[in-house]
Amino acid sequence: MKLLNQTNASAGVSTAKTISKRAMALKILALIATVVTLALIGGMMIFILIKGVPFINQSLFEVQYNSENQSLFSSVVDTVLMTVIALSIAGILGIGAAIYLAEYTHSQSKLVVSIRYAFETLAGIPSIIYGLFGMLLFVVYFKMGYSLLAGSLTLAIMCLPLVMRTTEEALLAVPTSYREGSLALGAGRLRTIFQIVLPAANPGIVSGLLLGVGRIMGETAALIFTAGTVAALPASLFSSVRTLSVHMYVLASEGLYIDKAYATAVVLLALVAVINVASWLMSARLERKNYGSA
Amino acid sequence: MEAPRPESGDRIKFSEVNAYYGDFHALKEINLKIYHRQITALIGPSGCGKSTLLKSLNRMNDLIHGFRLTGRVTLDGEDIYRDFDVNSLRKRVGMVFQKPNPFPMSIRDNIVFGPKTHGVTNSKQLDEIVERALIQSALFDEVKDKLNKSAMALSGGQQQRLCIARALAIEPEVILMDEPTSALDPIATEKIEDTITELKDLYTIIIVTHNMQQARRISDRTAFFLLGELVEVRETHELFEDPQDKRTRAYIKGKFG
Ligand SMILES: Nc1ncnc2c1ncn2[C@@H]1O[C@H](COP(=O)(O)OP(=O)(O)OP(=O)(O)O)[C@@H](O)[C@H]1O
Ligand SMILES: [Mg+2]
Questions:
Q1: Chain centre to alpha carbon of residue B235
Q2: SS3 B15
Q3: Which of A272-281, B64-73, B205-214, B217-226 has the lowest mean pLDDT?
Q4: Residue whose CA is closest, atom 4 of ligand 1?
Q5: Domain residues of chain A, as ranges?
Q6: pTM surpassing 0.95?
Q7: Is the predicted pLDDT of residue A144 greater than 70, yes or no?
Q8: How far is the CA of B209 from the centre of ligand 1 (A)?
């Protein structure tokens, strides 16, 4: 009897020991993973900067692109236009649909749940499929040709599921007690949504839109099918354009201007960084105003 | 037939009210009058229908899928479910919730949200409303220098008094409170109780509480509910000192949950 107790007790100690050993091992593994991740990402950044920065010069920013200067100026403008148009469309539709689903439907109903799954799936579809669809619908059927408009409509559709889902999540995460508080004061549904729920969901919505910005700026395949590759400032919505990512793709695939492709990568990184920092500053400011600086 | 005298007599009347959540019968044949310038306490074990009854006064139940109510609930003789636009009803019947739920915005913005909703735009007028509401809810001295700071940085008790201020800012006639102190410590509770007692001269107040001492301390009349039925309603001191129904007696002696 005594013996049995003893073995039990020692077994208890040894499992406790192995558990703490395992915890230690896991902690070290996690640390290694962190270091490797940082090294990879940091290394890549440094690599791109080293390769690209020396080739950033004035000729890259000449207004007119020609085969001498391979200017990326028009591509910066094209990228900004593409992002603004596509994101406005995806934002208005996606946020609107998310408001409807989150605020006006029964969030557990079969229909809403299946819509949610469908959009989840759509958000993960390879962009080339959107590109093909955009080409058939906008370029060919609606006769838009390779154009800024066809490209941005295609990218808007591509971002829509992402924007819709992240916005819906952000809305569903707003405590019901805020809505109740507002309704109990005699505010209607609309006022409650626009003055209470949306501001509270704002950080989540903005981070969804930023993911959208990332997808748009990084897109090549879908754009080659729909917006073409003309490196010029667009004369109208129906002009073919070339975003920075497409520009990089073209330069790299021609094989002659790898240096300029790296320089373009640096500019693209800088553009993304500027957008992220700006929105981060804006939402930090809003956060401080709403939740106090504690 | 009594003449309608909103200044003193019964303002709120439940006549043969039944309420259902789907098939579940949550309130059974309720007949109850609630008087002006009094605090009425609703007590009873968990799940007996206190919140359901309270929410039927500002129709917060409307939001719940499958909720149904029969019979008549009237405010100054007008049927709450038939004669009112829900938003104008809620302007007259304010509510304070169990958990403080200030909006994530400044203290001032929390208070002016209601008045702005109901059409007050003049900023001087809004300032006056903010000051009056904060004085009434006994919060003014603590926050007067930080009206533009976020409400989320206040303590739980202060947040609840802000929610009371927010409800007062739309100048309601009736104030519903669903266990307003159950999430608060004793000191904050005492402050809120003092606030509520102060307000009684101006408003009709209905408070749900699990704390019988609280009901005794602050209310004029008390209604005891059990399983969706109104068992007994009387002057508070009578109900606690000399309950007529043996179920009431058992409850106040602590025999149910
Ligand atoms: N949304 C709902 N759907 C279905 N049943 C509900 C709903 N809300 C309340 N009920 C049921 O109705 C009954 C009364 O609920 P109510 O919230 O009014 O009780 P209560 O007296 O306020 O209880 P508590 O003291 O716990 O707050 C309970 O049995 C509850 O389960
Ligand atoms: Mg309740």
A1: 18
A2: strand
A3: A272-281
A4: B21
A5: 2-55, 61-293
A6: no
A7: yes
A8: 14
Query: Which residues in B lie closer than 8 A to residue A191 (C-beta atoms)?
Result: 117
Q: Which fold has domain A61-293?
A: MetI-like fold (1.10.3720)
Pairwise CB contact (< 8 Å): A291 & B117 = no
Mutate to test the pocket of ligand 1, among B42, B51, B61 (most ligand atoms within 8 A of CB): B51
Q: Is the CB of B64 under 6 A from ligand 1?
A: yes
Report how far residue A152's alpha carbon sits from residue A141's, in angstroms, rounded to the nearest whole number: 16
Q: Which of B103, B149, B166 sits opposite A292 (nearest CB)?
A: B149
Which of A204, A202, A291 lies closest to B109 in space, CA to CA? A291
Contact residues, B window 213-242, toward A, CB-based 8 Å cutoff: none
Measured from the alpha carbon of residue B22, the closest ligand is 1
Over residues A30-61, the pLDDT tens digits come to 999 999 999 999 999 999 999 999 988 888 88
Q: Which residues of A touch B94 (CB under 8 A)?
A: 184-185
Query: Going by DSSP bridges, is the β-strand pair B221-226/B39-43 parallel, antiparallel, or unpaired?
Result: parallel
Please state the ipTM of this predicted complex.
0.91
Contacts made by residues B154-160, CB under 8 angstroms, sequence distance 24+: B154/B102, B154/B107, B155/B188, B156/B100, B156/B183, B156/B184, B156/B185, B156/B188, B157/B184, B157/B185, B157/B187, B157/B188, B157/B189, B157/B191, B157/B192, B158/B188, B159/B100, B159/B102, B160/B96, B160/B100, B160/B184, B160/B188, B160/B192
Q: Write out the DSSP string of A179-235.
A: HHHHHHTT--HHHIIIIIIHHHHHHHHHHHHHHHHHHHHH--HHHHHHT----S--S
Residue whose CA lies nearest to ligand 1 atom number 26: B46
Ligand 1: atom nearest CA of B53 is 18
Contact B71, B17 (CB under 8 A): yes
**Alpha carbons B189 and B212: distance in angstroms, whole number:** 14
Phi, psi of A4 (to 5 degrees): -55, -45
User: Cα–Cα distance between A284 and A291 in angstroms, integer?
Assistant: 10
Cβ of B26 below 6 Å from ligand 1: yes
**Ligand 1 atom with minimal separation from the B44 CA:** 21
Confidence of residue A66 (pLDDT cuts 50, 70, 90): confident
State in Å: Cα B45 to ligand 1 middle.
11
Q: Is any ligand 1 atom within 6 A of the Cβ of residue B180? A: no
Locate B99 and state its tokens: 């958990």
Q: What is the pLDDT of residues B105-129, one digit of tens each?
A: 999 999 999 999 999 999 999 999 9
CB-based contact (8 Å) between A203 and chain B? no
Residue B20 near ligand 1, beta carbon < 6 Å: no
Burial A171-210 (b: 16+ CB within 10 A, else e): beebeeebbbbbbbbbbeeebbbebbbbbbbbbbbbbbbb
Domains of chain B, start order: 10-252 (3.40.50.300)
The tokens describing A87, both together, are 């994101």
d(CA B148, CA A275): 29
Do A155 and A192 contact (CB within 8 A), yes or no? no
* Ligand 1 nearest-atom number relative to CA B98: 27
